[in-house]
């Protein structure tokens, strides 16, 4: 019985540096939350036709990546990456009054944000050195 407890714990620790299963939501008032701790993690999230929805991703560690897409009104993307060499690509399209908030703490982090949503906002905050960000609103 003790062997199974150790094996379960080992599986949990190993899964910390794995790919988060790609999520796709298309219902209104949806919430998508991904939390990853460790290195070489990747999160892939998509919300389409999901009005008043929220995507919340937190990645702590190094060499993590996030690809997020959202196409709906009154929705938000909140991304936090803490560590080094993390990257994020966020796209928001065909929406109104939506928001993207990116926070990256550490060094060598990168963010690319594309937004084609009227009345919407983008905020990118990077603390550290060697970081880069590109934000485009159309």
What pattern of helices and strands is seen along the backbone? HEEEEEEEEEEE
The proportion of residues forming helix, as a percent range, comes to under 10%
Poorly predicted spans: 1-19
Q: Strand fraction band? A: over 45%
Q: What does the main sheet amount to?
A: 6 strands, parallel
Biggest sheet, spatial arrangement of strands:
1-3-5-7-9-11
What's the pLDDT, averaged over the residues? 85
Instruction: Name the shape in a single word.
Output: globular
Structural domains: how many? 1
Number of strands: 11
- Rg, Å, rounded: 16 Å
Question: Helix/strand/pairing class, anyone?
Answer: mainly beta
Keywords: Fimbrium, Signal
Protein name: Major curlin subunit CsgA
Pfam family, one: Curlin_rpt
GO cellular component, one term: pilus
Attribute tags:
59% strand; 9% helix; Major curlin subunit CsgA; disordered N terminus; 138 residues; mainly beta; five-stranded parallel sheet; six-stranded parallel sheet; globular; single chain; 1 helix
Quick synopsis:
This protein has one helix spanning 2-14; strands spanning 23-25, 31-37, 42-48, 54-60, 65-71, 76-84, 87-96, 99-107, 110-118, 121-127, 132-137.
